[in-house]
Amino acid sequence: MLFVGQPAMSSALPPEKKSPKSALLRKLLASSSPTVIAGAHDGLGARLVEEAGFDGVWASGFEVSAAHGVPDASIITMTEMLESARIMNQAVTIPVVADCDTGFGNAINAIRTVELFEAAGIGGICIEDNVFPKRCSFYTGVSRHLAPVEEQRLKIQAALDARASPDFVVIARTEALVAGCGTEEALRRAAVYADTGADAILVHSKQSTVDELAEFARAWKRPTPLVCVPTTYHRASVEELSRLGFKMIVFANHGLRAAVSGMQTALRKLRQTGVASSIEDEIAPIAEIFRLVNLDRLRAEERNYLPSERQDPTTPVAS
Ligand code: SPV
Ligand code: MG
Question: In 3D, which of 153, 92, 82, 154 has the Cα closest to residue 120?
Answer without folding.
Answer: 82
